Amino acid sequence: MSVSLEEVERVAELASLELAEDEKPRMQRDLNAILEYVAQLNSLDTSAVEPLAQVSELLDAGSTADKGDGAALRVDETRPCLDRKVVMEEAPETNGAFFKVPKVIER
Amino acid sequence: MSATAVLSPDVIDKYEPVIGLEVHVQLLTETKAFCGCANKFGAAPNTNVCPVCLGLPGALPVLNRKAVEFATLTGLALNCQVRERSIFARKNYFYPDLPKGYQISQFDKPIAEHGWIEIPTPNGGIKRIGVTRAHMEEDAGKSIHDGFADSLTKTYVDLNRCGTPLVEIVSEPDLRTPDEAFEYLTKLKEILLFAGVSDCNMEEGSLRCDANVSVRLKGAPKFGTKAEVKNVNSFRYIRAALEYEIERQIEIVESGGRVAQETRLWNAGEGRTYSMRSKEQAHDYRYFPEPDLPPLIVSEEWKAEIAKSMPELPEARRKRMIAEYELNEQDAQTLTSSREFADRFEEVAGKAKNPRRVANLLLSELGGRLKAANLELDQSPISLTGIGLAADLLEESKISSKQLKQLFDISFEKGEDFPAVYEREKPQQITDASAIEALIDQVIAANAAQVAQYKGGKKTVAGFFVGQVMRASKGQANPALLNELVTKKLDAQ
Lengths: 107, 493
Hints:
The structure holds two protein chains of two kinds.
Chain A: H1 5-14, H2 23-42, H3 56-60, H4 84-90, E1 99-102
Chain B: H1 9-13, E1 15-26, H2 51-54, H3 65-77, E2 81-82, E3 85-86, E4 88-92, E5 102-106, E6 112-120, E7 126-138, E8 142-144, E9 154-158, E10 165-171, H4 178-195, E11 207-217, E12 227-232, H5 235-254, E13 263-267, E14 272-275, E15 288-289, E16 296-297, H6 300-308, H7 314-325, H8 329-335, H9 339-351, H10 355-373, H11 384-395, H12 401-414, H13 418-425, H14 433-446, H15 448-455, H16 462-472, H17 479-491
Parallel strand pairs in B: 12-13
Antiparallel strand pairs in B: 1-10, 1-11, 2-6, 3-16, 4-5, 4-15, 6-7, 7-10, 8-9, 11-12, 13-14
Helix pairs in contact in B: 4-5, 7-8, 9-10, 9-11, 10-11, 12-13, 14-16, 14-17, 16-17
């Protein structure tokens, strides 16, 4: 399996990245190297392995296992929010109440 | 494109529409899905935000337990299987009201799937509509494109809604007509309201619906190409949008064209849909498991505990109320038009001396007057408490049904609740036994023939005497006392 230049352009577009012409073949090379490595992993027989969504599930198999009673979840109680003034000061552009961004055009 | 041209019914009849609905509902939690910010509509912009819902680097989500309980209740109420282990996933796309650049959602392992809703069919039957899945996700913020001096060049963003817990309920493509879609939504909303998981307020966006629709020749094995219709903010508009879209697609197919797979926006003002003209293959969300959240585990025990907190759902409640108050289907429907109303009714009926009488007064005396005055139940001048009082007065024979009708009429004329009208206009009731006896004596003296009948064993004639005396008293004799005295007097003849 290898990635075409068109696929590199498509992935860049989805990630909202603008690639210079000379960057594209480099990205193609990097992506293909990653895919080759994954292909190598794929050659292992994993039919007897339970799929994991994330590694924490391995840790959870021990004493910290989630009992499924919701005890580890957050209680539904409000906590203080941030002061809007502080938030707005950190944003590139605001009117003091709203964030302002360049006009959104549907894509 | 001219879907305005009228297609002949014969042509339309050759085709079968296929409709599936995606409904987003906001859950009635105090706080957001992954942070402790208030989940509240209508706050000043950007005042319910924190590092988590602003997507600031390093902030981590912690799942709201109540949201899980509500999502589980939703799944159970829709007859779904609730997964013991569900996985959150990132849905990646760029939009300014989604500061993280991804929405936390669920993908291949949603919390609930394989459910169904039953809807009524036009011929009085029932059709079961599959619910593919109900999954948890978070809402995005709000973009405001118009209304500011610099709206031509700027979009304003309010992130208060960002992170609001949602359940997205996806139906199977089992719906075949716009009416079925309408019925499905009506039932779904009713179930969610009774389950108490969402306020389903469409104006405030707590219930939103997108429709997938395609057409195919009847009997065709495969579905046609579907269009997704968005931006529809009432059930009636959904029906109208689907009707429009179905005709539009049939017209394209009839004229030899191909329906484009695309997203279309409903314009309520013009009564038509418009293509969003989004780029080909624009949607590729690159879902992957959310690394910041562990799998969600809902054990059998917890699920059972949540199920125990399930309020009575509409169908079950109607069945029970039909038995308990001796109602017909239609009346049960009226009394359960909302959970809130059904609760209030049952509270009043529960306290009344005769609950069935409360139902009866509400449906006949009040219902008839509301209909005549073209009013809805919640616009009634007479409250449920007023109905409860009236029912008790009748039950205790403190007023006659004729007097009650008069008092109700006054309530409607003056727009005044029954208890106030009753206090003021309290009918003079003759409860003085000797006064009633005097009237009875007069009637007995004037109707010797009926007295003879009574003595001959025809006890039902007593009713005649009661009626006559009631009339002579101008409806003011205490009915219970009158009954008693008439029998006593007749037996003594």
